[in-house]
Amino acid sequence: MKSEKEKMLAGELYDPLDPQLSNERQRARLLLKRINETRDDEPEERNRLLKELIPAMGPEAWIEPPFYCDYGSNIVLGDKFFCNFNCVILDVAPVTIGSGVLLGPAVQIYAATHPLKASVRRSGLELGKSIEIGDDVWIGGGAIVCPGVRIGARSVIGAGSVVTKDIPEGVVAVGNPCRVLREVEE
């Protein structure tokens, strides 16, 4: 029989009030509080705490506080990743972000979702869908990446966009819902 955590990571309905999941979220919240309270003259301490929160964080990855997530342990960050102020990553399913990725301020990445049927939502069960963001992607400030989305390498997502479907490699995409405008010229 699968644990609630195994169900969660597999994208199946799970109970978010499960004691193990509740404890892991509390651990993340306590670490986030410490991270978000670090001063700019404490970069080593901030980086140490970030690596405790997100063990799969590449070298030279950087997150500007305040930052928020559910667990941290379900996030993979590539090398030279940069996250600006006020970003949120709801990582109830795996969130994999490549190297050289730039997130503008207030970008929100939501792997968390809820059942469409009200009767199932009333049960309190939730689910997640994994998100993948390729290398060298730039996501403009205030953009939202919805559950289950893949963004191809070298693409640019315009500020304020709502990404509801996969975006191919090497394109500029904007809007709500986010649509491809053109290819990126190297």
TrEMBL record:
One of its GO terms (molecular function) is galactoside O-acetyltransferase activity. PROSITE patterns: HEXAPEP_TRANSFERASES. GO terms for cellular component: carboxysome. InterPro entries: Hexapep, Hexapep_transf_CS, LacA-like, Mac_dom, Trimer_LpxA-like_sf. Residues 5-59 form the Maltose/galactoside acetyltransferase domain. Signal peptide: none annotated. It holds the Pfam family Mac. CDD domains: LbH_MAT_GAT. Its EC number is 2.3.1.-. Keywords: Acyltransferase, Repeat, Transferase. It is an enzyme of class 2 (transferase). Belongs to the transferase hexapeptide repeat family. This is Acetyltransferase.
